[in-house]
Write a structure and sequence with these properties.
Residues 11-183 form the Thiamine phosphate synthase/TenI domain. Condenses 4-methyl-5-(beta-hydroxyethyl)thiazole monophosphate (THZ-P) and 2-methyl-4-amino-5-hydroxymethyl pyrimidine pyrophosphate (HMP-PP) to form thiamine monophosphate (TMP). It is an enzyme of class 2 (transferase). This is Thiamine-phosphate synthase. Keywords: Magnesium, Metal-binding, Thiamine biosynthesis, Transferase. The model has no long low-confidence stretch (mean pLDDT 96). The chain has an eight-stranded parallel beta barrel with strand order 1-2-3-4-5-6-7-8, surrounded by six helices. The chain is α/β, with parallel strands linked by helices and 212 residues long. It has helices at 16-24, 43-53, 68-74, 88-94, 108-117, 140-150, 166-170, 181-184, 189-202, and strands spanning 5-9, 33-36, 61-65, 78-81, 100-105, 121-125, 155-158, 176-179. The protein contains nine helices and eight strands. Helix 2 crosses helix 3 (68-74) and helix 5 packs parallel to helix 6. The protein is globular, with a radius of gyration of 16 Å. It has one domain (5-202): TIM Barrel (Alpha-Beta Barrel), CATH 3.20.20. Bound molecules: the ligand Cc1ncc(COP(=O)(O)OP(=O)(O)O)c(N)n1, 4-methyl-5-hydroxyethylthiazole phosphate and magnesium ion. The site of ligand LCLJCK34 has 5 residues, from loops.
Length: 212
């Protein structure tokens, strides 16, 4: 298992055929987790996305954002909960224990609460300015470090993350990075995935265990 992980999220702005085309050209084995984050699509459509993308991400875990019904229907190994999803504890009651639960959090308090309820990891952001979160102020590196300290489960950083700022992000002790536009909307997604993986693997920062 790799020390730090690379999560890639679908954008909600592309058709399945385009995402599949990109995946077919990319070293997807360098990606630890693909998130199907298609908030405007129904559960049936999301199951079709999973069926089409899973073979292209054979070595990645494919997690489903929000829709536990779709995740259960396809046997996905993980879900990602958003602010308006079922809570972590509600999700735990529904999902088999083997299904990983990630939870989007926006403060150290939310991160600690998600961990307490049984989240396997939290996603915290946005760290830097991001076109994917227009008009919203970024939370910054110090806030990420504070979340890492407050939280007993791995923290994945998201928002405005590029290969050039990965080292600074990992210096907080977080467990990895999640990227949306900088991979799937990039002109050269394959090269960009390699740059991310190299930047992550080059970093010598250690994971912080949290609560210390
Ligand atoms: C009112 C409000 N709060 C938060 C969000 C963003 O949702 P979030 O839980 O952060 O889920 P992801 O965007 O991370 O998938 C929102 N849209 N509105
Ligand atoms: C889903 C989400 N949550 C916080 S920032 C973000 C989007 C990050 O997108 P990008 O990687 O394009 O900055
Ligand atoms: Mg969020």
């Amino acid at each position: 298992m790799r020390k730090h992980s690379l999560h890639v999220m679908t954008t909600g702005q592309q058709e399945l055929a385009r995402v599949a085309e990109i995946a077919g050209q990319c070293p997807t084995e360098l990606i630890d987790v693909l998130h199907i984050r298609e908030k405007q699509r129904g559960a049936g459509e999301i199951t079709a996305w999973y069926a089409a993308l899973k073979p292209l991400f054979a070595q990645s875990a494919v997690h489903i954002n929000d829709r536990l019904d779709a995740a259960l229907a396809v046997g996905a190994p993980g879900v990602q909960l958003a602010y308006n999803s079922l809570s972590v504890s509600q999700s735990r009651r529904i999902l088999p224990p083997s299904v990983s639960i990630g939870c989007s959090v926006h403060s150290a308090e939310e991160a600690a609460a998600a961990a307490e309820q049984g989240a396997d990891y939290v996603l915290y952001g946005h760290i830097f300015d991001s076109n994917s979160k227009p008009g919203l102020a970024p939370r910054g590196i110090q806030a990420l470090a504070d979340v890492v300290k407050a939280c007993s489960v791995p923290v994945i950083a998201i928002g405005g993350i590029e290969p050039g700022n990965v080292d600074e992000v990992l210096s907080t002790g977080c467990a990895g990075v999640a990227v949306l536009s900088s991979v799937l909307l990039h002109a050269e997604p394959a090269a960009q995935i390699r740059r991310f993986r190299e930047a992550i693997d080059r970093s010598h920062h250690n994971l912080r265990s949290g609560l210390n």
